[in-house]
Amino acid sequence: MNTAQDIEIRPRHGLLNLDYSGVWRYRELMWTLAMRDVRLRYKQAALGIAWAVIQPAFAVLIFTLIFGRFAKIPTGGTPYPLFAFAAILPWTYFSEALRRSATSLVTDGELVRKVYFPRLVMPLSGVISPAVDFLFAFLVFLCMLVWYHMGLSWKVVTLPLFLGYALLAALSIGLWLAPLNVRFRDVTHTMPFLIQVWMYASPIVYSLDIVPEQWRTLFSLNPMVGVIEGFRWALLDKPSPDWHVIGVGSAVMVAMLLGGLAYFRRAESTLADVI
After folding, report:
1. Nearest alpha carbon to residue 170 among 128, 202, 135
2. Domain count within the chain
3. Domain membership flag for residue 237
4. pLDDT band with cut points at 50, 70 and 90 for residue 46
5. Cα angle, residue 102 at apex, residues 39 and 87 outer, rounded to 5°
6. pLDDT surpasses 70 at 118
7. What is the pTM of this model?
8. Residue 60 CB: number of other CB atoms within 10 A?
9. 94 contacts 141 by C-beta, under 8 angstroms
10. What integer best gives the mean pLDDT of the chain?
């Protein structure tokens, strides 16, 4: 009995008409690529997965000494290490997800040239893999809560929503940068500088309260402002976050995501030729 099937691949029309059903069919490939990134990141590293904890922990230590002890940045009564760590958690995830998503097509260029699959799988796998690091860092944050005799409130159930917000923010920018990185490898060299500047434009070492009211809307165009505010609200039982800030950041993120999908769709057909 002949069970062979003919598969015909046709070009899709429409700026947002990506092969979403194909992404679901290739979900195992997406998971495999994500887990491969995790293994490669810590392969032959003496400390292994401990680096997922060491990096944010040292960042919190440095920020605590400089901005908590010396500059005395106000935190609304929250111990500065917890104040900083609650922001470092989403920022570390976002920065690593953005980096991996933006470089995913070039990193797996041979796979793009040789095998057909929806190219959207690659930036998606890039934003999924840093979630492993996030989980380990979050466990350390829970230990710090115990050290400071603080607990979690019901608000912690909203944390996956804000983490998903960070994932979509990273993906929305990665969809622009990944095809650009195929044509202009300068993107790879620009990423560390971009991420460093972006970090100080986000309320990580300082509170949103110190931003003047007249600059608040402009400041909230950065989607990570809403993410960080949401994390501090959910983890530290802070007063209600500025929903205007979160709303503006969400609108920007959605616009960038739709634009990124359209740009990725337009560039997808020529990726294998250029890469």
Report:
1. 128
2. 1
3. yes
4. low
5. 75
6. yes
7. 0.88
8. 25
9. no
10. 86
Alpha carbon distance 218, 136 (integer Å): 34
Which residue matches tokens 């503006």? 248
For residue 39, the model assigns a pLDDT of 79
pLDDT in tens, 67-88: 988 888 988 889 999 999 999 9
Nearest to 134 by CA among 178, 171, 101, 86: 86
Give the Cα separation of 264 and 268 in Å (integer). 6
Does residue 2 lie within any of the structural domains?
no
H helical segments located in the chain: 20-25, 27-42, 51-63, 80-107, 109-114, 121-128, 130-147, 159-183, 186-200, 216-219, 223-236, 243-268, 271-274
Is residue 124 domain-resident?
yes
Give the pLDDT confidence score for residue 272 in this predicted structure: 64
d(CA 266, CA 66): 46
214 domain-assigned: yes
Residue-range definition of the domain harbouring residue 168? 41-274
Mean pLDDT of 204-217: 88
